[in-house]
Design brief:
alpha/beta, Rossmann fold, 8-stranded mixed beta sheet, binds iron/sulfur cluster, binds magnesium ion, thiamine pyrophosphate, oxidoreductase activity, acting on the aldehyde or oxo group of donors, iron-sulfur protein as acceptor, iron-sulfur
């Protein structure tokens, strides 16, 4: 039976498990924003599933009173997509970090974007591997010195928003964990969007890298003049290396995978075996 909450507050979506993150970790702000977002939408906790991979941020489902799935490193997206395909009635949110989504799980991001399955992804990006104590991740800047790159990172920096735009993701946004109200609004819009929604959440790891001060200076809200249907304009914002623009970069309504499957079914079987044999025999 659906567990409906009348007039829910963010607390109604919070479990009794105390977060194990370091004091000052940005992931607290993202958790706070997610709780607000779900409460804002009055989603039934037992019709909502939060799926994660492995990493500091992937502990997330334990701290929520929804259903949860703490899966395997880099594999939040296959689990989340399979879940949504088999239970389209559920709200599915996949969460994790930059290592999880842009390194070991990067291949899954490409195909999830192209399929446009109706799930929401929140990537907590701290530009470092926090759980394993501070090695470079795909979003670490070129030249960054860590224990794993004592002479500076030789690779170039992965750009999550530009990548999402080039993969034709149908909802692309960025928020900041220090602004949980704004991030909550983006999470709500992402869940409401029918299709694959990608939310890049800047989430500092003060233990091994950024402090909030470093990002406070760079974070800049996207102008209200920005046309969210203009992918080229969105790309210009994404490629700006001085500023970290926040807000909705791009949104497009297009068929989700189940809508496309529905249309296929309505047309009848499009694959004519006889014709195929005649043509290729
Ligand atoms: Fe957060 Fe960094 Fe601590 Fe992990 S190591 S809990 S990312 S502050
Ligand atoms: Mg990380």
């Amino acid at each position: 039976m659906t567990q409906t909450i009348i007039n829910p507050t963010p607390k109604d979506y919070k479990s009794d498990v105390k977060p194990t993150w370091c004091p000052g970790c940005g992931d607290f702000g993202v958790l706070n924003a997610t709780l607000r977002g779900l409460a804002g939408m009055k989603l039934a906790p037992d019709e909502t599933v939060v799926v994660s991979g492995i990493g500091c941020s992937s502990r997330f489902p334990h701290f929520m009173r929804t259903f949860g799935f703490h899966s395997v490193h880099g594999r939040a997206l296959p689990v989340a997509q399979g879940l949504k395909m088999s239970r389209p009635d559920l709200t599915v949110v996949a969460v994790g970090g930059d290592g999880d989504f842009f390194s070991i799980g990067a291949g899954h991001l490409v195909h999830a974007a192209l399929r446009n399955i109706d799930i929401t992804v929140v990537v907590m990006d701290n530009e470092i591997y926090g759980l394993t104590k501070g090695q470079t991740s795909p979003t670490s800047p070129h030249g960054h010195v860590t224990k794993s790159t004592p002479y500076g990172l030789m690779a170039s920096q992965f750009n999550p928003i530009a990548t999402a735009l080039s993969l034709n993701v149908s909802f692309v946004a960025r928020g900041y964990s220090a602004k949980p109200k704004d991030l909550a609004a983006l999470i709500e819009q992402g869940i409401q969007h029918k299709g694959f929604a990608f939310i890049h959440a800047l989430s500092p790891c003060p233990t091994f890298y950024h402090t909030f001060d470093a990002w406070d200076a760079a974070v800049t809200p996207i102008s209200p003049e920005h046309n969210i249907q203009d992918r080229n304009q969105a790309m210009m914002l994404a490629l700006n290396t001085e500023k970290q623009f926040t807000g909705v970069f791009f949104r497009e309504e297009r068929d989700t995978m189940d809508q496309a499957a529905q249309k296929l079914a309505e047309r009848g079987n499009p694959f004519d075996v006889e014709q195929y044999i005649q043509r290729y025999a």
